[in-house]
Amino acid sequence: MPELPEMETYKKLLYEKIVGKTITNIIINREKSINCRPDMFIKDILLQKVIRIDRRGKHLLFYLVNGRVLILHLMLGGWMYYGTEEEKPNRTIQIQLSFGIENLYFIGLRLGYLHLYPINEVDEALPNLGPEPLDINFTLPFFINYLHKKRGRLKTKLIDQKFLSGIGNCYSDEICYHAQLLPTRTLEDLTDIDKKQLYESIQLILRKAIQYGGYMNHAFYHDDRLTGGFDNKCKVYDREGELCERCGSEIIKKMISSRKTFYCPHCQF
Where are the transmembrane segments (predicted)? Predict the structure, then answer.
């Protein structure tokens, strides 16, 4: 599932490709992916210009010039591709937004969605999200205070969107590995040193993942050399049976709260 770095990468590339451009055509192949009648959806966004794109957690928000906002959540298996009809992937397209001869294809929206709201209803439409870990106000003192009286296992809390926005399976594992903390540790068990290291690892891993385009390897456009660059930099995620780069022990996989979790049992404590 796309997480904060993947959605931040999409945001950057979408700014380059569609901000300032007008939606010239809409094709809806799966009505369940939107939240209103197709004719109303098309009426509200056709010939509207995209003026801004924001990210909140794992959501992208497309602001249109007429005051409408498209809220995207790709969920499990969702991704996007931008290009001409000749370049589009040989995959089922749930929604297509056209910008002249180029199109933005929404793929794999079996669980994901592209919902339309008036701008004054956006906050109500989004789920109750926790703090953004890369927000300017997300400082170490804030984080230490925020953890006060919080309870639960580290893995479970890191992927809880009400606890922190945007972190999922991949980056929770990479953060725990970098911090040398077992994902089974509980928040109440963490020392002040552990909490400081956890904060620094959150910042470093997320920023590095954004720098390298996240871990998902679906190209966003023809000749895209950014998207997916973090995949071969993952130290534990999806590396079961491989040797830990830090200590040489075998990386293991364990189910925690019904989620696959990868870690080194020797150098994570």
Answer: 60-82
| CA–CA distance, 69 with 235 (Å, rounded to integer) | 37
Q: Which tokens go with 134?
A: 């890369």
Q: Distance between CA atoms of 242 and 254, rounded to whole angstroms?
A: 14
Is 229 strand, coil or helix? coil
Nearest CA-CA partner of 249 in 186, 194, 202, 182: 182
Q: Which CATH number does 140-263 carry?
A: 1.10.8.50
Q: What angle do CA 29, 114, 231 make, to 5 degrees?
A: 100
Confidence at residue 138, expressed as pLDDT on a 0 to 100 scale: 98
Q: Which two tokens stand for residue 185?
A: 């540790």
> Mean pLDDT, 10 residues at a time, over the chain (269 residues)?
98 98 98 98 98 98 98 97 97 98 97 98 96 98 96 98 98 98 98 98 98 97 97 98 98 97 98
Neighbours of 151 (CB within 10 A): 9
Provide the whole-model pTM: 0.97
Question: Could you tell me the end-to-end alpha-carbon distance of the chain, in angstroms, rounded to an integer?
Answer: 27
